[in-house]
Amino acid sequence: MAVNPSGADMKAFLAEDPDQPIVMLNLLRFAEGGEARYDDYVTHFRATAARFGAEVVYFGRGLAPVVAEPGQEWDAVLLVSYPSRRAFSEMVRDPGYQEGTHIRTEALVEATLQPTVPR
């Protein structure tokens, strides 16, 4: 399972509306020992993301689901507000941010990144 966006993913993401503010929903499934590693990533992320106007809205551990098909449970949820799709794209290309992406990759076996907008 991919845990990081590809170049094609980012191109399609930006094609929709590059200046649209978003809240990115991150659904996370940890590798063995990955929870502590992901905490290290979040520390790195917070330091880097602020330069791009991003803000962690919520980071929490998943509990046993009330309604879910087998395999749909997640270990953690992270919500991050970005001023625009472009800000997200600029952040993931930033060398300072990229210095810590290996931590995220090592910590996860699966992730979903779902951009959302208010209704």
From TrEMBL:
Gene3D superfamilies: 3.30.70.100. InterPro entries: Dimeric_a/b-barrel (IPR011008), DUF1330 (IPR010753). Residues 35-108 form the DUF1330 domain. This is Uncharacterized protein (DUF1330 family). It comes from the Bacteria. It comes from Pseudonocardia alni.
